[in-house]
Amino acid sequence: MIASIASEGQETRPAPFGHALVEAARADERIVGMTADLGKYTDLHIFREAFPDRYYQMGMAEQLLFGAAAGLAHEGFIPFATTYAVFASRRAYDFIHQTIAEENLPVKIAAALPGLTSGYGPSHQATEDLALFRAMPNMTVLDPCDALEIEQAVPAMLAHDGPVYMRLLRGKVPVVLEEYGYRFEMGKAKIIRGGTDVLVISSGLTTMRALEVARTLEADKVSVAVLHVPTIKPLDTETILREAGKTGRMVLVVENHTVVGGLGEAVARVLLQEGMAPKFRHIGLPDEFLAAGALPTLHDRYGISADAIAASIKGWL
Q: Which domains are seen in the chain, by residue range?
């Protein structure tokens, strides 16, 4: 049930995080790779094959993983630590909070299976990770869309002076943004395509789906703009306000995260603080423990598939 998120026939690249980290490590000897028994499932095995002496397998002990990463960071290394998002956000939160974030150490966390990208039920579905890490001082929070953005985010994480939490799409990851000439910039939201009827604000997997929806709704003469927000914290309020302030468009936030505490609430807060009141809608995962099952079925059930998003937009319009 850890299924591919690629649509049929969609171009993919294997293990973009692992390959990008190897390229970064060739030029920077401070980089070490660390994981808690999940190297194969977070694409860190690519790094292990290239740099076995800089790879640390910590076993099924996430608290130890992040405590040790903090220690290595204190000694001048830059650890890239990988696990599943549920284990980073729930099992090891206090260790990250106290040993990494409070010390503002350059530990880079790459967390696989974010939101609803696993069909294994609540034990593996990190539906609240953005809310948790947004609330952690000093933590930069990223939610990249595709293989291209993951590749570009790795060197940006390395260059950032402080801890970073990145949601990680693993395995054969779709390539979506390349055709738009996209370049990742930490802290920047970017318009991927323009539109006059609806502004979709999204991140991660849901930007991929929003672009599918925009193409589909063209047949119904519905013009959809897509604003991609890969940096959840710090939020690019300037771009969000500029785009949301354009009159005549419904503003819709779509996210692969619970509706509590994620991108939707962050955007709504920004709009209200500035006195903006566009027609606002929000699609996210419900505030409940989600079912297990096949991903396409679950995405339809919880409203974040391309078909479900398109149907919601047409209904609201």
A: 12-174 (3.40.50.970), 187-316 (3.40.50.920)
